[in-house]
Amino acid sequence: MNPRITFAVATRVLTQIRRDHRTAAMLLVLPCLLITLLWWMFKDTGGGVVFDRLGPGLLALFPFTIMFLVTSVTTLRERSSGTLERLLAMPMGKLDFLLGYAIAFGVVAAVQSALAVLLAVGVLDLDVQGPVWLLTVVAIADAVLGSALGLFVSAFATTEFQAVQFMPAFVIPQILLCGLFVARDQLPTVLEKVSDVLPLSYATDAMQTLTRTTSTGDVWQNVGVVAAFALAALALGAATLRRRTP
């Protein structure tokens, strides 16, 4: 791994995103619009209680899902167009490529998550007991996890349509079992055990903890689990990344 090459890859990706206005809008604006839509749906029901219950989980869910989708499709496009093969013909390793992408999308994730959290807490009055900055850290970690998983699954797709098809396998089960709809300790025993090995469960737990208490010990523990999953996904991605699509 060469740090100079890694950051050169990250700079290249950020430049591409900046020039692609539609992708930039999807990454930065869409989570805010979805959070606002949820608030609007429940504005006149429950006195904001429903939004306070669902909002924290969705602050973890939206960045994760969007970053997974964008990263998997973008990485596959690099490979299918031959760009990745040309890059790897240079003195650059697979880990340089993946870490460069992870850093670039991590920067985007930081901006995306900060905007969504500031909107939810500062404008939509989401009730949070813990520090708001830690809420942002959890959202960023979850978005980076989505990017890492997107990089990993892109190695197994041959078309952009196939990359999108991985969402039902990698994303939707985590949404259903993360505790957003039913508390994880109230799930059937088998499903509870499955949820224990899904990273989105820990991000949701961290978000919900911040709405109930000012204690941050459990939150940092959950963030550590999410970060470990992200690093594992990057390592697996480096091991399985192909230079080009057959």
Automatic annotation (TrEMBL):
Keywords: Antibiotic resistance, Cell membrane, Membrane, Transmembrane, Transmembrane helix, Transport. The keyword Cell membrane applies. One of its GO terms (biological process) is response to antibiotic. It is a multi-pass membrane protein. It comes from the Bacteria. The keyword Membrane applies. Residues 19-244 form the ABC transmembrane type-2 domain. This is Transport permease protein.
